[in-house]
Write a structure and sequence with these properties.
202 residues, alpha/beta, Rossmann fold, Arc Repressor Mutant, subunit A, 5-stranded parallel β-sheet, 4-stranded antiparallel β-sheet, 8 helices, 38% helix, globular
Length: 202
């Protein structure tokens, strides 16, 4: 699974979060990126006051998995219209903070061209047709949904976790099964190959 998290907030908070969430790749995000319509299907943590929500376009919360920590003393959780966003007020213990990050970012959906990945299901939304994904198939497909392409070496070493020097058809085997599941739900998304790069065509 793609474990990159974007952080919007003060530099001091960014450094603290980077130390706490050492299992994740942490990157800063600017206000301009928050309002960029092409910035989607990302995991984002916002640290700010309530006013920031009004300055961000609604589509941002619909298209990204977001946790918004609001600096307020209210000990409550606000329910958002978007199922991709969780709002928290006040302080959280470190363990609770980490648990919320993992829960929110692992269970939220990823969508591309009306095809949704949610938990262990791959669904064609308009016709409500679904298939089950293995954890590894899900991780590969989420990476492709987010990045649109992946080099074979990266897929083998970073996602499948085997050395690229090992002669194997493992990558092709996994992608063949994923292609079959995309066809089963009548998706227009195709996984194609050019040299040592796998990429999406849709």
């Amino acid at each position: 699974m793609n474990n990159k998290i974007y952080i919007y907030g003060e530099i001091s908070l960014f450094k603290i979060v980077k130390e706490i969430l050492f299992d994740y790749k942490i990157a800063p995000i600017t206000f301009d990126q928050l309002n960029n319509e092409n910035f989607k299907n990302n995991n984002i943590i916002l640290f700010s006051d309530k006013g920031l929500k009004k300055k961000i376009k609604k589509n941002f919360f619909l298209q990204n998995n977001t946790i918004f920590f609001i600096r307020d003393n209210k000990d409550q959780i606000e329910q958002s219209a978007s199922q991709n966003t969780n709002f928290y007020y006040g302080r959280l213990r470190v363990k609770k903070f980490v648990d919320e990050i993992k829960t929110c970012f692992i269970t939220k959906k990823t969508v591309l061209n009306k095809i949704e990945i949610l938990e262990d299901k791959l669904t064609n939304i308009p016709i409500n047709l679904s298939v089950l994904l293995t954890p590894l198939e899900k991780e590969i497909l989420i990476f492709l949904f987010k990045n649109k392409k992946v080099k074979k070496d990266y897929l083998l070493e970073k996602i499948i976790k085997i050395k690229k020097e090992v002669e194997t058809k493992t990558a092709e085997s996994h992608l063949t099964r994923i292609r079959g599941k995309l066809m089963k739900i009548k998706s227009q998304i195709q996984i194609k190959t050019k040299e040592d790069v796998f990429y999406l065509d849709y």
